[in-house]
Here is the input.
Amino acid sequence: MAFYQIPAPDLSSLVIAGSTVLALSAEGFSTDERYLLVEVQYVDDGVVPFTQEYAYFIYDLVDQAYVANLNALIGGDAASITQIEQAVLIGSSTNWEVVALASTSSDATNQLVSITNESVQSLDLIASVLGDLGDIDVEAYQLSADGRFLVVQTSSPVLANDAYPDANDTSDIYLIDRQNGLVERVSFIAGSEVNEPTKLSDIRIVNGELQVAFVTDGRYSTSDDNSNEVSGSQGFRSDTYIWSRSYDDSGFTGSASFNLITSSTEGLASGFASTDFDTRARFTDTGVYFTSTSDLLVSNDSNASADVFFRSNEGVISRLTLDYIDELSTGSELVDVSDSGRFVFIRSSSSEFGGLGEVDQIIKVDTTDNSYEVISNNGVVADSIALFGESSASGRSFAFSSLASNLVESDLTPSSDFDLF
Here is the structure.
């Protein structure tokens, strides 16, 4: 297995004087696994007081060189855009699109920008599809693999149908059909909105059906009795759902349905699903992986910790199994999965994996035989924690950030606390 550090990009075009790199992180691979989307956190040494800035680049893993500076591409067309806050990469290295969430200097709003093959296609993607609806504060978003569908989490009400206004003043999820200029409110059931925030997890297309995973304290199923409770420990109402609806070339068809994913052994909502976007539920070809601290999802869950679970397409829930380990003493969290679901990447500080006490490591699990390997230590005992990362579609490649200082002989980004490998 090749293990190497990814260097920081040249930031000179984005700063007044020099720059100090604070952190690098992976945000996604191209489908052919050649390009890696990289986020850089930095400060401009020429600006006082120092302010943390964000920039996004595309790194060529074959040539080991940066091939696109997304901030510079956007900045050349819009001086009002100050920085990129998030970005999503789809497509191959020869035909790719990045949708970036960019903040503007004129006010506190943000907007989605579309960049295709180093060419800015739209400085306001939602407006280019739906027309100018005013300010939309995008909190999170995802793209379908083919780019047709954009799913957005926002508390802004302007995407709602006039006949069913968005009046709950909290986070909702909307699905935008870029091909036909249509909008569907995901967090809407039986003609009614839900008052609790709905947080986006993932999107996929399966056999002509759209599926969106989300986590919420709201009630989208008659089995979700915990959403009616007003007391309980932190997270006891949080459950993961899948919204599904068919579509064709002209738009959405049929009716939407909701499927409770975090279902207990008694068929009721288990609660305690992770609401952190970094540990969000992930779709695979065979089912959904998710993180939960509930002990009601499977029998004999006794570690009182977060664990990684799998719900198959047939509706069967199981806890991620590792060879010769009955139960991880301090549990684990989901990091990412391969598209097929064969490879699952988890983060854990459990003693079963060795390493320093309470130091998180990234473990790659092969679900065909439950074998596993610590992949974040490069053959040494890492002296600090591994953070979250991204898997390629096949699971053959994985990029992650780490605070460890002893993974390589020569640190390529000595100013950065979070290095990228």
